[in-house]
Amino acid sequence: MAIIIDGKKISADIKEELKDKVSKLKDNGVQITLVVIQVGNDPASSVYVGNKKKACEYIGINSISYELPESTTQDELLDLVTNLNNDASVNGILVQLPLPKHIDEDLVIQTISPSKDVDGFHPQSVGALSIGQKGFVSCTPAGIVQLLKRSGISIEGKECVIIGRSNIVGKPMALLMLRENATVTICHSKTKKLSEVAKRADILIVAIGKQHFVTKEFVKEGAVVIDVGMHRTDNNKLSGDVDYEDVFEHVSAITPVPGGVGPMTIAMLMNNCVETVTIK
Predict the structure, then answer these.
(1) Looking at domain 30-117, what is its CATH homologous superfamily?
(2) 5-13 mean pLDDT
(3) pTM here?
(4) pLDDT at residue 280 above 70?
(5) What residues pair up with 84 in beta bridges, in sequence order?
(6) What positions carry a catalytic annotation?
(7) Phi/psi at 9 (nearest 5 deg)?
(8) 20 to 30 Å CA-CA from 235: which of 22, 184, 219, 243?
């Protein structure tokens, strides 16, 4: 019988641990402040920002929001980020993506101080991860490692296949699994015989952005499957990159959508905020 990896419960456990840490920091006169900047009123972004505010409030992190109009210029946004970099009372800066088309996302990310880069997207953060130095790690990949560890799933020595090579999930995920001593293969749109490569995996992580792309033909008997995808079906239900019903009988453990990877992203963002007091 497959284990359903409960991201809601694991994320709640992490938040409780962080709440205790933040309380102790406050007792020592340390207040953590996260600034979230949203440009425009994209509905999905508004939901994410709202969830981040709720998480901050629950854990005890001070949250400041800048909700800027779509017409905000790139220079205005960069000036705001620079001012926040120089504000000693601000621990973390998060610019909600995507940004309007007239703003260069890469430039904005590079402008955030690496010591306040709680999203883990700055090139310095990525570079630190690649050579095993201290730094912030992208929240979704970090959350996946926690899902595996807290579910009692061993990573060391396992064959891990990652489908997807994005800068936000696929690439940092590969580096993290290497850090945990897995043997890692990254697949993408140009990979030949993709299903055969995927079927080698003890741990299969799917972040390809195509609904129900992975079926049982991709999955080795007894594999662990982590589904990073998020899509809405025709009847407005959420589903992932993995055809859950099709693969369920073949796996030893699997994340559902919703309730798997999703809740972990915000939990690990909160963790990064707490780590701002130690990572410099």
Answers:
(1) Leucine Dehydrogenase, chain A, domain 1 (3.40.50.10860)
(2) 98
(3) 0.94
(4) no
(5) none
(6) 52, 96, 119
(7) -70, -45
(8) 219
